[in-house]
From TrEMBL:
Signal peptide: none annotated. The lineage of its organism: Bacteria, Bacillati, Bacillota, Erysipelotrichia, Erysipelotrichales. This is Antibiotic biosynthesis monooxygenase. It comes from the Bacteria. InterPro entries: ABM_dom, Dimeric_a/b-barrel. It comes from Sharpea porci.
Amino acid sequence: MAITLNLYYTGQNGSARKFVEEMESSGVANKIRNEKGNLGYRYFQSLDDPETILLVDSWENQEAIDLHHASSMMNEIAQLREKYDLHMHVERFVSDEALPETDQQFIRK
């Protein structure tokens, strides 16, 4: 059962965007993508709030998230969040991995 986290990073004067740029350029984001159990790690820019960046972070299970949280990368991420004075809002979703047939009719493939 996959777990997906939507992390909304909000700052001022482009700081959320700068945070993402440093996460990518420093290689931290790619290290996370390569961690065992990571299913996806992608950033998105908000269309209605340019000061907010959405991170969609997906994991195979809670154990994979726990291992990630115990890694040394979490210190790097925390330092960057402080550096850019970011505030966060988090949503958590657990996948049942079954798209009902009644929903499939609305998906254009």
